[in-house]
């Protein structure tokens, strides 16, 4: 692509971003000053700023101090839930597909001290150990056009949820009660169902797949949700003779019959390093104390690593009877897309680089980052098929945000 054409492309990104922030800003703010600050914040998040905190973002966009962004995130009058709805609507407008997948996962922000809302010693997936951190269950919307966050929650550990003093200091609303991480995903799914968000499947890791209440929510007869979620090896199943057994015993029985013909090598989608090939096996199962929705059945998928055959992961599928196994494998392979969103949000857009401690500023920052990621995703989708790089990469091959003018 010639330099003038590339310049025109960048200018079109700038115009689209301006139109988006103006449209959303007018729905959120009465006065022009917070609308301008909101637009500056989104533009700063998309820029090449080392740390996406209020001070460095303010310096990048030309504010003399961090006061404007700090006021916007903390004391200004606006509704982060209204912004979240706008983000979801924008993503659906550009990426919607009837066979789209909603993916549930949580990400963590490691923090010091004990005053930031929700922070506590708890398991951190990014390090694989207990850290002093905040945990954020998120939903990603994924289709062939792209994938971006559409919903979020902040997990409040019981030590926070049942402590009136800490709640008051952090501004936690009175109607917020303790909920498990899967419970928060149920809340978000209910919001998306009510909004009519089009999707065909739910995907998630074993932290969500193992939860019987989340699965029960998906089995409801009035609006069943098909899913493919990772599950632990001890997921309770029922044999044909009515006896209880863990999922791992299914693998043992299959292996006892011999390895020949058991596994089939299949791709579950493109990854950062190319086609993601695994060996797969599948068997119909009955889940203990849980019936599938009418017209649906349960299938246990077993995924074996090609490089290390001892590495086997289990997935439970809940889908309409007659659904092709290849379709279920495709859905299982979609789960990594939310991990990519988590990485992009943290590394490129400052998802966890905030310096806020209270409930309202946290939701405002995270939701604004969701808007920045949605803009990035839609911009990529529009570039598909054009004679231009779909996205720039750094020396490690990580995606960089399309740079728009900062003024």
Please sum up the structure shown:
This protein is of the alpha+beta class and 407 residues long. 40% of the residues lie in helices and 23% in strands.
Overall number of domains: 2
Helical coverage, percent range: 40-55%
Q: What series of H and E elements makes up the topology?
A: HHHHHEEEEHHHEHHEEEHEEEEHHH
For the record, give the distance between the C-alpha atoms at the N and C termini, rounded to a whole number: 25 Å
Structural class, from secondary structure content? alpha+beta
Question: Poorly predicted ranges (pLDDT <50, ≥5 residues)?
Answer: 385-407
Beta-strand percentage range: 15-25%
Gyration radius from CA atoms, angstroms: 23 Å
- Give the mean pLDDT: 91
Individual helix count: 14
Shape: globular
How many beta-strand elements?
12
Q: What can be said about the biggest beta sheet? A: 12 strands, mixed
């Amino acid at each position: 692509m010639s330099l003038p054409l590339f310049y025109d492309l960048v200018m079109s990104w700038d115009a689209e971003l301006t139109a988006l922030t103006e449209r959303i800003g007018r729905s959120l703010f009465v006065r022009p000053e917070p609308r301008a600050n909101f637009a500056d914040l989104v533009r700063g998040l998309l820029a090449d700023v080392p740390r996406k905190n209020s001070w460095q973002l303010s310096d990048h966009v030309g504010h003399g101090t961090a006061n404007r962004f700090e006021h916007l995130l903390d004391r200004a009058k606006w509704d982060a839930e209204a912004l979240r709805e706008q983000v979801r609507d924008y993503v659906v407008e550009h990426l919607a597909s009837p066979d789209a997948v909603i993916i549930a996962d949580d990400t963590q922000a490691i923090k010091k001290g004990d005053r930031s809302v929700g922070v506590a010693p708890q398991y951190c997936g990014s390090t694989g150990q207990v850290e002093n951190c905040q945990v954020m269950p998120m939903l990603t919307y994924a289709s062939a056009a792209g994938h971006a966050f559409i919903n979020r929650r902040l997990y409040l550990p019981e030590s926070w949820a049942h402590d009136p003093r800490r709640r008051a200091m952090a501004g936690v609303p009175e109607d917020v009660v303790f909920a498990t991480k899967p419970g928060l995903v149920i809340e978000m799914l209910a919001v998306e169902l009510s909004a009519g968000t089009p999707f065909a499947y739910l995907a998630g890791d074993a932290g969500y797949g193992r939860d019987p209440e989340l699965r029960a929510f998906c089995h409801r007869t009035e609006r069943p949700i098909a899913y493919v979620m990772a599950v632990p090896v001890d997921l309770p199943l029922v044999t044909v003779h009515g006896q209880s057994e863990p999922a791992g015993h299914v693998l043992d029985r299959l292996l006892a019959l011999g390895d020949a013909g058991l596994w089939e090598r299949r791709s579950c989608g493109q990854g950062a390093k190319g086609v993601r090939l695994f060996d797969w096996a599948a068997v119909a199962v009955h889940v203990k104390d849980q019936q599938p929705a009418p017209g649906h059945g349960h299938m246990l998928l077993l995924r074996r690593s090609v490089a290390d055959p001892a590495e086997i992961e289990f997935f439970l599928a809940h889908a309409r009877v007659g659904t092709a196994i290849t379709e279920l494998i495709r859905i299982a392979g979609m789960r990594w897309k939310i991990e990519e969103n988590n990485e992009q949000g943290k590394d490129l857009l400052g998802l966890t680089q905030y310096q806020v401690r209270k409930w309202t500023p946290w939701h405002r920052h995270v939701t604004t980052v969701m808007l920045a990621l949605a803009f990035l995703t839609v911009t990529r989708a529009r570039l598909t098929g054009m004679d231009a790089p779909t996205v720039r990469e750094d020396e490690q091959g990580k995606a960089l945000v399309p740079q728009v003018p900062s003024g």
